[in-house]
Design brief:
Elements lengths: L8 H31 L3 H16 L1 H15 L3 H20 L8 H26 L6 H29 L2 H19 L14 H7 L2 H30 L4 H26 L4 H22 L2 H29 L5 H25 L6 H36 L1
Helix pairs in contact: 1-4, 1-5, 1-6, 1-7, 2-5, 2-13, 3-5, 3-13, 4-5, 4-7, 5-13, 6-7, 6-10, 6-12, 9-11, 9-12, 9-13, 9-14, 10-12, 11-12, 11-14
Length: about 400
């Protein structure tokens, strides 16, 4: 019988199956709500609804940071249980939403769904080292999970869109509820952690504040903020310009393909480059492409930058997760991922708020130029910080 901690179906494979089910369910939930939140309303109404959505996106992390992370680290079965509870909880939320699509109760239910979804993301990331004990396999494992997310989103999104178009959002929510139930049972089959974590010590807390982790976390926060910025910028500018629906679809496809390319290219890159180089390259290449797209300012530029940012965000996130697994204390992954997921989501929301607030003054060209400046400055700053750290370390080593 195979060890449950191997890189096979008894360990990692079960996590992949549960995560795929959760992502498919989230796709049904998201598509069901998309019409009522954005696409069926005027720009003014959409901006108001989107602001509510962004505020709801921030709120779950007030719970995840101080509560979920420590709870994950204190229990051997905590991460697996949280995955299952999140899936079963979202199944119930989907079922309750069926009769509340046009009701004020939709937003409280959406808040609950977001809490459960983000908790799943934290628990999933913290579980990876438990089912992939070989640190050399962590990049590959993270890339596989991201790849599964891409395909699962498509697998769930297409039939969900069909159900909403042919029947209604309630039908999509009902199917999503069933998918979440299946994902919950799959989560319960994931092996427990080998041992219960001990309380965090000051020494271990300082390990999470290691320069390599802090610098990478800041760089990835900027990338996530740019993803949020670009997502809402293109959505509102394309709608404001009365672009045909196929343009929306083309941008979405470009982003999905970019995410796929980032997942596929990162493991081979890791065999030649370290995590820091991959993350810095993601920032600088995205900055250069954004600068080129600022000269175009049309549909081609929008599609190109959507593809490039998706590649950079996907590749950079895989590199960051691997770096955190590499340099962070193993039994504090729950707290660590809760903290960084909080930071990344807040960065995404902060980036998304900019185009929502400045829609009347931003154009594609000015926005792409701003994106290029932010990404370029972040990439150069990240490289400078790494070099300063290395020079300081060499100086300290020479002095001793």
């Amino acid at each position: 019988m195979r060890d449950p901690q191997t890189f096979g179906f008894n360990g990692f494979g079960r996590l992949v199956a549960a995560h795929a089910g959760s992502v498919v369910g989230d796709a049904f939930l998201t598509v069901s709500l998309a019409g009522s939140i954005f696409f069926s309303q005027s720009i003014g109404e959409s901006r108001t609804q989107v602001l509510w959505y962004l505020l709801l996106t921030i709120a779950p992390f007030a719970i995840i940071g101080p509560v979920v992370g420590p709870a994950l680290d204190r229990s051997r079965a905590g991460r697996r249980t949280l995955l299952a509870a999140g899936c079963f909880g979202r199944a119930l939320v989907c079922f309750l939403m069926i009769g509340q699509i046009d009701s004020p109760l939709l937003f409280p239910l959406a808040f609950i769904a977001l809490v459960l979804s983000k908790s799943h993301s934290v628990a999933k990331s913290a579980l990876v080292p438990a089912v992939v004990p070989d640190s050399e396999k962590l990049v590959e494992a993270n890339s596989r999970l991201t790849l599964v997310s891409v395909f699962a989103s498509i697998l769930g999104g297409l039939p969900a869109a069909g159900l909403v178009a042919v029947v209604d959002a309630g039908a999509s929510l009902f199917v999503g509820s069933i998918v979440f139930i299946v994902a919950g049972f799959l989560s319960m089959r994931i092996p427990n952690a080998q041992r219960e974590a001990v309380p965090e010590t000051p020494e271990e807390r300082s390990e999470l504040a290691a320069p390599s982790i802090v610098f990478a976390g800041t760089a990835m926060s900027v990338m996530r903020g740019c993803v949020g910025f670009l997502t809402f910028l293109l959505a509102f500018l394309l709608k404001k310009g009365d672009q045909p629906p196929w343009v929306f679809g083309l941008v979405i496809v470009a982003s999905a393909v970019g995410g796929f390319v980032g997942v596929v290219m990162t493991p081979p890159l890791r065999r030649r480059l370290n995590e820091e180089t991959i993350l810095a390259s993601a920032l600088l290449v995205s900055s250069f492409v954004a600068l080129l797209c600022a000269r175009d300012g049309g549909r081609i530029g929008a599609v190109t930058i959507a593809f490039t940012i998706a590649v950079g965000a996907s590749s950079g996130r895989i590199a960051f997760d691997s770096l955190l697994h590499r340099d962070g204390p193993a039994h504090l992954y729950g707290r660590a991922f809760a903290r960084f997921e909080t930071r990344f989501q807040l960065a995404w929301v902060a980036g998304a708020l900019v185009p929502v607030a400045l829609l009347d003054v931003l154009t594609k060209r000015s926005a792409f130029f701003l994106l290029a400046l932010v990404l370029g400055f972040s990439g150069i700053s990240y490289i400078a910080g790494l070099r300063a750290r290395n020079e300081w370390g060499s100086h300290q080593h020479g002095s001793s």
